User: What shape does this take?
Amino acid sequence: MTMDQPARAMTAAVLVLLVVALAPLWFFFFAFPQAERLHVAVTASTVVVVAALVLSWAMAPVAAVLSPTDLLIRRRAMRPKRFPRASFTSASEAPRRLGLRVAGVGGFFGSFGLFWASGGTGVYWLYTARVKAAPGAQLARRRGKPLVVVPDEGAAFLAAVRDWLARP
Assistant: This one.
């Protein structure tokens, strides 16, 4: 999965905004060396922001792989998410709109996590590196919320998932 142009632009904009937001804090950090409370606040804020950025980068999906027994969502620096083939009941075309983010990341290094969309889709798990609408697969599950995967080759991926689910 590669980030599309809007995802790259959003990621760059967020990084620039964070640098702009943290720059004045670090200015005061160095301008007032005796202000211990300020140093703690600036350091804590920076650690939280950097941790969130690193975690978002590490969890971002990079590939969707169909193994004989599992659907694997490979991520940049974390273990892949593993979904057993037996947990799925069917596959259909994914909604063209990504919906609203309930929990997770909505455009920074991709879109992944829990999302909500109207029109019968409801709450679902999403894994994509894209922001713009693209074809993908929505997999209904025996238990739990549906899974929506939008890789670069969305239409071919949907066909492959349907064949994969049809195997004995």
DSSP finds three helices and nine strands in the chain. Strands lie at 61-66, 70-75, 81-84, 88-93, 100-106, 111-117, 122-128, 137-141, 147-150. The first helix runs from residue 5 to 31. Helices lie at 5-31, 36-59, 154-166.
